[in-house]
Amino acid sequence: MPRVRASCALAALMVGAVAPGSAWSAPPGRVGLQGVLRGADGQPRDGSFDFRVRLVADGAVIEDENVTNVAVRSGVFSLEIPANETLTLALGESSAVTVELIVDGAILPQSNLLATPYGLYCAAAATSRNTTSLGGRSMPEWTLKSELADADSATAPVQWRGVTDLPLPCPPGSFLSSIDGLGGDAACLAAADVSSVAVGEGLSGGRAGGDVTISVDPAQVQLRVSGQCAAGQAISRVDEGGGVACEAVEHPAVTLIGSGAGVSGALTGTTTEVQLDPSVVHPRVTAGCATGDYLRGFGSDGSVVCDDDATTFARIVTVAPVPGDALASGAALLNAVAAIDDARESNRYLVKIEPGVYDLGVAALVMKPYVDVEGSGASVTVIAGVGTGDYSHAVIHAADAMELRSLRVRCTETEPDHYYATGILIEDGSPVIRAVAVEVDMDNGVDDPATYGIRVGGSAAPRLINVEVRVFAPSGDATAVAAIGVGESRPLLSIDGLVASLDGGAVPIGFAVRKAEGDIRDVQVRASGLGIGSPNGFIVVDGAVVATEIWVDVDGSGYGGFAGQLVNSAFDVTDFHFKVAGQYGLMVAGGWGNLASGAVEVLGGIGGPADGVFVATAVGDATLTLVDVDVEVLGASAGSNNGIRCDDSGSAIDLRDSSVFGDPAFVGVTGATIRVAMSQVAGGVTGAVGTTCVAAYDGSFQPLSATCH
Question: Residue-wise over 120-139: b if at least 16 C-beta within 10 A, else e?
Answer without folding.
Answer: eebeebeeeeeeeebbeeee
